[in-house]
Write a structure and sequence with these properties.
Small Protein B, Chain: A, 2 domains, seven-stranded antiparallel beta sheet, two-stranded antiparallel ribbon
Length: about 160
């Protein structure tokens, strides 16, 4: 029966994170949501761009994740930017917390999606901030790739016309 369901819920990606940070490691984490939050996520009302993760008392929390209030919700509706707990195993939490405190790395939420069973998962990455010159280099590489693709398309179009 689950095979017949179509996956019509999109993945939500923090595109800015790839530009701002260099990714070192990634994990899949569960997230504690209320019912109205899950309905809003299914409706596509999520913004990951301002979200960040912090360790508190040996647990990992995501802050500033924007999930719009559910339109048909009653007084049980959720706060749009409330603090949400991420669900990971203690072994992974300790390992990442140690790396974050020792090396000055950060935990960034990168991608939010639904599993086949209907659970909301977040892909979090252990990241190191890029310097200004690294960002300029990334922009230059992106422009070069775009220009090469553009010239390749015009050459192939020119050859097709002959």
């Amino acid at each position: 029966m689950a095979d017949k369901k179509k996956k019509n819920t999109p993945d939500y990606i923090n595109k800015r994170a790839r530009f701002e940070y260099q990714f070192l490691d990634s994990l899949e984490a569960g997230i504690m949501l209320t019912g109205t939050e899950v309905k809003s996520v299914r409706g596509g009302k999520v913004n990951l761009s301002d979200a960040y993760c912090l360790f508190e008392r040996g647990e990992l929390f995501i802050r500033n994740l924007y999930i719009t209030e559910y339109e048909n919700g009653t007084y049980y509706n959720h706060d749009a930017r409330r603090i949400r707990k991420l669900l990971l195993q203690k072994k992974e939490l300790k390992k990442w917390e140690k790396r974050v405190t020792e090396k000055g790395l950060t935990v960034v939420p990168y991608k939010m999606y639904f599993t086949d069973k209907g659970f909301v998962k977040i892909e979090i990455v252990l990241a190191q901030g890029k310097k200004e010159f690294d960002k300029r280099e990334a922009i230059k590489e992106k422009d070069n790739r775009r220009e090469m693709e553009r010239t390749r398309l015009t050459v192939s179009k020119y050859n097709a016309d002959k």
